[in-house]
């Protein structure tokens, strides 16, 4: 009813300007024909139509925006420490950032992808890859927090990741760098023929979402740049772009740009499953971390795995075919029907589109053009569906609107070009500001894109916003794509460097978003469910404080008997069971961040007092009218002091 | 008025007695549905906190509403919302309602068997109304006590323009602004069903009387 009224209102306002609501929808004469402000305006208190999840790139995180308003709702810490939420600082969350290389406080997060059911985004989880130290994270969309991180062994530069298959059977992670597998001490000059690339298939438990590295496919030593799942008719296949099929190990800028064509590798993962059933997989030693966060104990656990199942593509016929694709293709995008596979050859003047049907036919009739390390190369002309001629300079990525159109970004000519699948004709082009990388249409990597908006994520910002010194946020532009012509309707800054984004209709997620954690269900070993159970316990030089917080006091708030050289653990439970009443805790002189504790949770940090005195702590989140009164003191005595531990609230 | 008396002919004594039974039995819905509801909304509580008052005790509308109301009330020194065992009303009310319902049903059976005159339906209704008014009076006393018997060490001691301490009782019926909260107090399903039941007993009396006069 409200929506109808809004629509009426919108129409009547538009009507005043344009003499007729119907006309405004049909006419597509550029910026003057419609009111951009009206399209992106979400009135105070109203909700956006979509959640947009933007990767943070070198921030390592995932930010959540509303679309079409471009309002930032939240930054979810994933691969990087976040002092705001104590992620990676609190004792409970530190294990999330453990790897086979130890604790790593940062990564480069790239390609978020929302879980799918029957080819449609379902909003259960969102996956994202850590590029630098290869990892895949799963973010729970009830909590909007990182639930799991799985390290990927044998991989290096985890870039062609983390795309899901149409029923979330697998999250797929491909390696950018080829490396010695297993890793060993050898000369870089011996790269060619010796280095290998690993493509990882991670299975997902459909109930819990838990990830397991199901198998890896070992490939020739190319670079595997991006990937996308087959869908519909091509479900069961996965497509990866390659570059550096020259297998250069230095000055790739030049040496990896020599071949006229690189490949899209078509991987038949159903065949891989058959090979595994037939016992063709080999178990290989590998060290990788598996970190999980438990919402009942409110703690993360870090375990190391020591084995991975490997299939060697060069020894297993029918597993992988190579589709020649001009000039170092970057994005590898599959249209909603699963028929067209777009290779965005970044140094090519044309866009190459392969046909899945033709590919199957070429395989059946052995239309091969030689092989690479035993992998059949299909004849280019026999798999080609069509070519988009001279669309622009530097194609990178393509998305689809579900209405037969494709949208490709051009980094060098800084534009998005809309073209038609099947006829390959160019319909429209619009500039971006500047040098667009990825673009995103809600449900873009699915069988059912929602062709209403398109977001361009740009690499260069320059003069788009008020100047803020030499370091700039990246810019994004939102386009209305409901008409024949794209229309720029909003420009907004983003956090870090968004490499890809994923969006989903708000109503698929908003109603299940968590408000509190139930205190009754809190199984943290140091939970304090009632202020009467608050206590301070000494174990040698360790002091454990079981503390509670509720508006507007800590229990206890006076503690004596702590000594210099002690290791003081604050185990703090927020007793609130009310939505949006977090309490913070900060201790003067603690070599760590604050804690920000959500209702019903328990969190821990460690303070090692170095100076004698009486030191204060306080609540860092303005929780209530008496927030400023929410504070306490800890007396620190000399190391040799014999003062006994004591604690109190209101001297009781 | 001229057709009213004719209207009461629609039920003979048997049917009127059945209606008396149904009306009295509807009181039992108070064991299943709340009698009253109080909602507390504020700028910070766009989804209001709420209490459902049953004859057997007070429950939160949402799982943690009572706890959260108590949490807020501690600032102004109000007592916590009583548990069922802390108020005699929650023991006595169910007994009274149960007995009255049984009594009404028995009267209805008596009427059906021609052993009880319709005037007893009216006596029952009057008794029930008196008890109901007493209940409301008691409820109001509790609200006033709850809202004005405040902890002398309360964090916030608010006074009105004349320097008198503010009281915080929610209204027994309707709306009242209490600091940042808007309190709304209205009957709930149980009370409405009880009212329908009492109306039925009135109808039963009027029809029964008409049937007898004829």
TrEMBL record, chain A:
Gene3D superfamilies: Cupredoxins - blue copper proteins, YVTN repeat-like/Quinoprotein amine dehydrogenase. Pfam families: nos_propeller. It comes from the Bacteria. SUPFAM superfamilies: Cupredoxins (SSF49503), Nitrous oxide reductase, N-terminal domain (SSF50974). Residues 1-19 form the signal peptide. It is an enzyme of class 1 (oxidoreductase). Its EC number is 1.7.2.4. GO terms for cellular component: cell envelope. Keywords: Copper, Metal-binding, Oxidoreductase, Signal. Its main location: other. InterPro entries: Copper_CuA (IPR001505), Cupredoxin (IPR008972), N2O_reductase_N (IPR011045), Nitrous_oxide_Rdtase_Sec-dep (IPR026468), Nos_propeller (IPR041114), NosZ/Cyto_c_oxidase_sub2 (IPR051403), WD40/YVTN_repeat-like_dom_sf (IPR015943). It is found in: Cell envelope. GO terms for molecular function: copper ion binding; nitrous-oxide reductase activity. This is Sec-dependent nitrous-oxide reductase. It comes from Myroides albus.
């Amino acid at each position: 009813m409200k929506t109808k009224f809004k629509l009426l209102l919108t129409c009547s306002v538009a009507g005043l300007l344009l003499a007729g609501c119907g006309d405004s929808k049909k006419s597509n004469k550029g910026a003057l024909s419609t009111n951009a402000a009206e399209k992106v305006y979400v009135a105070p208190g109203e909700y956006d139509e979509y959640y947009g999840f933007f990767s943070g790139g070198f921030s390592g995180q995932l930010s959540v925006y509303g679309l079409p308003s471009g309002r930032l709702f939240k930054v979810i810490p994933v691969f990087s420490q976040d002092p705001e939420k104590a992620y990676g600082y609190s004792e409970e969350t530190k294990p999330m950032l453990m790897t086979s290389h130890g604790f790593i406080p940062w990564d480069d997060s790239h390609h978020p992808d929302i879980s799918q059911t029957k080819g449609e985004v379902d909003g259960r989880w969102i996956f994202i890859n850590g590029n630098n130290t290869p990892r895949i994270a799963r973010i729970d969309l009830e909590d909007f927090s990182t639930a799991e991180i799985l390290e990927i062994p044998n991989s290096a530069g985890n870039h062609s990741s983390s795309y899901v298959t149409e029923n979330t059977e697998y999250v797929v992670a491909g390696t950018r760098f080829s490396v010695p597998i297993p890793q060993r001490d050898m000369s870089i000059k011996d790269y060619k023929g010796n280095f290998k690339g690993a493509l990882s298939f991670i299975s997902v438990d459909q109930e819990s979402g838990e990830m397991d590295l199901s198998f890896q496919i070992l490939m020739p030593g190319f670079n595997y740049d991006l990937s996308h799942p087959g869908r519909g008719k091509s479900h069961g296949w996965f497509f990866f772009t390659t570059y550096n099929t020259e297998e250069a190990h230095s000055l790739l800028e030049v040496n990896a740009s020599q071949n006229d064509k690189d490949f899209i590798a078509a991987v038949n993962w159903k065949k891989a499953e058959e090979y595994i059933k037939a016992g063709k997989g080999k178990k290989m030693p590998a060290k990788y971390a598996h970190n999980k966060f438990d919402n009942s104990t409110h703690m993360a656990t870090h375990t190391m795995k020591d084995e991975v199942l490997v299939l060697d593509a060069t020894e297993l016929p029918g597993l992988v075919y190579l589709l020649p694709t001009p000039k170092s293709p970057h994005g590898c995008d599959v249209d909603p029907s699963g028929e067209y596979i777009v290779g965005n050859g970044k140094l090519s003047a044309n866009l190459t589109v392969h046909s899945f049907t033709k590919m199957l036919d070429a395989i059946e009739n052995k239309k091969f053009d030689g092989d690479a390390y035993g992998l059949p190369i299909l004849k280019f002309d026999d798999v080609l569906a069509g070519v988009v001629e001279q669309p622009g300079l530097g194609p990178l990525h393509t998305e689809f609107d579900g209405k037969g159109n494709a949208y490709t970004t051009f980094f060098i000519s800084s534009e998005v070009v809309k073209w038609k699948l099947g006829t390959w004709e160019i319909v429209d082009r619009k500039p971006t500001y500047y040098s667009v990388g990825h673009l995103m249409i809600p449900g873009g990597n699915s069988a059912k894109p929602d062709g209403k908006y398109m977001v361009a994520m740009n690499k260069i910002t320059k003069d788009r916003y008020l100047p803020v010194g030499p370091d700039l946020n990246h810019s994004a532009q939102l386009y209305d794509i409901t008409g024949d012509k794209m229309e720029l309707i909003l420009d907004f800054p983003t956090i870090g460097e968004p490499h890809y984004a994923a969006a989903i209709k708000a109503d698929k997620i908003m109603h299940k978003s968590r408000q509190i954690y139930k205190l009754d269900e809190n199984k943290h070993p140091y939970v304090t469910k009632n202020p009467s159970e608050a206590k301070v316990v000494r174990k040698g030089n360790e002091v454990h404080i079981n503390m509670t917080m509720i508006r507007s006091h800590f229990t206890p708030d006076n503690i004596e008997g702590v000594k210099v050289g002690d290791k003081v653990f604050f185990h703090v439970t927020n007793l609130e069971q009310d939505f949006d009443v977090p309490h913070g805790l900060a201790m003067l002189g603690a070599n760590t961040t604050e804690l920000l504790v959500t209702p019903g949770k328990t969190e821990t940090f460690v303070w090692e007092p170095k100076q004698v005195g009486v030191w204060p702590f306080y609540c860092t989140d303005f929780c209530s009218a008496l927030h400023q009164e929410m504070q306490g003191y800890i007396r620190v005595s000399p190391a040799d002091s014999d003062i006994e531990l004591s604690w109190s609230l209101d001297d009781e | 008025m001229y057709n009213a008396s004719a209207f009461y002919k629609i039920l003979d004594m048997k049917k009127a007695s059945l209606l008396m039974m149904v009306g009295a039995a509807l009181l039992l819905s108070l064991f299943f549905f709340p009698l009253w509801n109080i909602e507390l909304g504020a700028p910070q509580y766009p989804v209001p906190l709420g209490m459902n008052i049953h004859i057997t005790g007070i429950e939160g509308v949402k799982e943690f509403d009572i706890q959260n109301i108590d949490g807020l009330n501690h600032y102004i020194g109000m007592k916590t919302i009583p548990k069922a065992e802390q108020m005699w009303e929650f023991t006595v009310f169910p007994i009274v309602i149960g007995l009255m319902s049984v009594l009404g049903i028995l009267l209805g059976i008596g009427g059906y068997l021609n052993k009880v005159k319709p005037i007893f339906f009216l006596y029952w209704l009057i008794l029930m109304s008196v008890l109901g008014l007493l209940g409301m009076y008691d409820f109001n006393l509790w609200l006033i006590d709850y809202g004005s018997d405040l902890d002398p060490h309360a964090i916030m001691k608010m006074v009105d323009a004349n320097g008198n301490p503010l009281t915080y009782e929610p209204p027994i019926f309707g709306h009242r602004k209490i600091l940042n909260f808007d309190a709304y107090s209205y009957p709930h399903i149980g009370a409405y069903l009880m009212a329908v039941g009492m109306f039925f007993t009135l109808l039963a009396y009027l029809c029964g009387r008409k049937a007898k006069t004829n």
